[in-house]
Each structure stands twice: as C-alpha cells, then as structure tokens.
Amino acid sequence: MDKVIVAKDLSLSYSNNEVIINKVNFSIDSGSFVFITGASGSGKSTLLKSLFGALSFKHGSLVVGGVELNNISGKKLNFLRRHLGIVFQDYKLVREWSIDKNIMLPLLINGYMKNVANAQVDKLLKHVRLNHQSGKYPYELSGGEQQRVAMARALAHNPIIILADEPTGNLDEYSSQLIWNLLEGANNQLKTTVIVVTHNIPKNLNVTYRHLHIEYGSVHEIC
Ligand SMILES: Nc1ncnc2c1ncn2[C@@H]1O[C@H](COP(=O)(O)OP(=O)(O)OP(=O)(O)O)[C@@H](O)[C@H]1O
Ligand SMILES: [Mg+2]
What is the pTM assigned to this prediction? Predict the structure, then answer.
C-alpha cells in the first residue's frame, strides 16, 4: 500500500518554542480513513496544520503526497495544496463571496471550465442540502450551514487527501450525518484519504478506520 503521509521524528511548536508534538512517528496509507482525537489543547489542529504546510517545523521529516514539507518552497506548497481538501475548525469562508463562489474557487484554481465548475457547484450544494441558499453570503447562513459549505468546498475538486478539523463540531444530528456520509462516500467510492479531527467518532460509520490519539505530545494508535 502506498504511504500518502509519513512523519518521522516530527516535532511541532509555534514561535514561543513550546513543544506541542514531540518526536512522533506515524504513516498513513493511501485511501485510509483516520480519526484523530485528543483533549482540547492536545495538539490536534496543530498536527493537522502541519499536514498542509501551515506550520514550519525545525525537527524531523514530514512527507505528504510524496512531497517533503520541511523547508518546502511556496511554489511546491501551492501545488501540493491543490490536491488537498481542507476543512478548518473555523470554516474560513471568504466573506465577500457568495457560497457558490466559495465552493467554485478550488475548481477554478484546478483549471475546470466555467460550465463544468458551475455544474459541480450545483451538485455539491444539493449534496449538502443547501441548494435553496444558492447566491447567499456566508454571513447570511447559520454556523452549521457554513460548515456544510466548507465541506462542499473541500470536496469540490476531488482531492487526494481531505483534512477536516472537527467538521461536525457545530452541527445537529441531521447535518452531522450528511457530513459523515460525504466523507464516507469520498473514501469508499473515490478512495480519497480522509483524516478527521473529532471529539466524537460516529458509531454507524460504513468504513474501516484507524484511530490516532494525541496525548502529552505523542500520537498513539488506538486499536
Ligand atoms: N498560533 C499559536 N501560537 C502559539 N501557540 C498556539 C497557537 N495555536 C495553538 N497553540 C497552542 O498549541 C496547543 C495545541 O493547540 P491546538 O489548537 O492544536 O489544540 P487542539 O487539540 O486542536 O484543541 P481543540 O480541541 O480545543 O481544538 C495549545 O496549548 C495552544 O495554546
Ligand atoms: Mg483544534
């Protein structure tokens, strides 16, 4: 099985040099579904950020999609990010753009023709049950609806890896189920590698998954 992520002796810290993740080793097979759990402040978002190159690190090695992220050039990082779908804990939708345009952005960056991109946006809005909100702006939507837009944007360009930070954190049962179905579908049908930070692993998931738990700066496999 191809390894889509390989971390060796990886340590992560912010500018204050406090060590958040301490010399961890793990690898993730292409096409797998991985949950990351841990207490608040344990370093889940920090680890996820490192996977899309949003955190520079001084120690160890991290290879994502065959690309070493230590000292990566901006150009290479942009290229890698085109193949990632990222759902942030605080959504990060572009406020000045309609939700349709937010979802369309990764498609345009990836060179989709305008009419194909439009059709894909319509399809995704239906998938996340927001077609009735088409044309609206993020601030006109509830938190849960914005979260669903963020998920649609992450999935839009069929990324090789989806990195999602508490994608159901603010959602009710109905919306959570929608999100899990989408992630499950991407993993089962498109063989997308899915990495999800969550406090609650859903019980009725139709995929085989791995569970990594962060505690005291280490990453443990929960079997
Ligand atoms: N930008 C930053 N600068 C300095 N320290 C930070 C920064 N972001 C996070 N931290 C620190 O890193 C540690 C881990 O934070 P992180 O956001 O990764 O936690 P988390 O596990 O995602 O928590 P939560 O479940 O609350 O989202 C915390 O102690 C936090 O204070
Ligand atoms: Mg977090």
Answer: 0.95
